[in-house]
Amino acid sequence: MVKLSPSILSANFANLKEDIEKVEKAGVDMLHIDVMDGQFVPNISIGPVVLKSVSKITNLILDVHLMIDEPDRYIKEFVDGGANIITVHLEACTHIHRTIQLIKSYGVKVGVSLNPGTPLNHLEYILDDVDMVLLMSVNPGFGGQKFIPAIKDKIRELKKMIDARGLNIDIEVDGGIKVDNVKEVVEAGANVIVAGSAIFGADNVEESVRSFREEIK
Ligand SMILES: O=C(CO)[C@@H](O)[C@H](O)COP(=O)(O)O
Ligand SMILES: [Co+2]
User: Fold this and answer.
1) What is the distance of C-alpha 32 from the center of its chain?
2) ipTM for the assembly
């Protein structure tokens, strides 16, 4: 079953509660929380304080995407804020293995994300330790960018690596996913789809979620 994880980066932050209720009612599976530090990526978004408030008004799985340098410093705060899955960028961690163990020690799920230009072989010695791999299909930092087509091959390769090891790891893809390209992403092997502008930015959120579901059923 393919899961939908709309990114609140494209929500109206002055109206966040209503926006989240809309996607929840529309039947999405998770809520993707983009955290940006203005250092690892050239943008600043939200942190654990907002996450904590969000966790109080939704039952959706909170899928936290940390685009911050040396995330070990803040893992506990995001756990306390209600994160169910914490994904860190491989490129942002000096000791990725240690960071993965730290996240697991709090009993939450752990994901590792790769920028579009980072090769899959960097996962070789950590793949067995993670619950999810997040492949970026845009360069991180902003919503509303264009999907990078080469990532479809990367998804296929990752799926092969996971299957060859007999692992049960989610493949999440994030950036530029719309109703008209989601099918290709799922066919390549992704089973968690992030969509920001295409869901929170849609005129009719319910209709957008329905169209996504139709494409990936
Ligand atoms: O992590 C990021 C961007 O860095 C994403 O989660 C975006 O927020 C997705 O937005 P769209 O590309 O779907 O508009
Ligand atoms: Co994201």
Assistant:
1) 6
2) 0.99
Question: Token match 């005129």: residue?
Answer: 203
- Max Cα-Cα span within the chain: 46
Tokens in use for 131?
Answer: 């619950």
Q: What CATH number has the domain spanning 3-216?
A: 3.20.20.70
Going from the Cα of 56 to the center of ligand 1, the distance in angstroms, rounded, reads: 23
Report pLDDT digits (tens) over 114-146: 999 999 999 999 999 999 999 999 999 999 999
Q: Per-domain residue ranges for the chain?
A: 3-216
Close Cβ partners of 49 (under 8 Å, ≥ 6 residues apart): 81
Residue list, ligand 1 pocket, CB within 6 Å: 7, 9-10, 32, 34, 65, 67, 138, 140-145, 174-177, 194-198
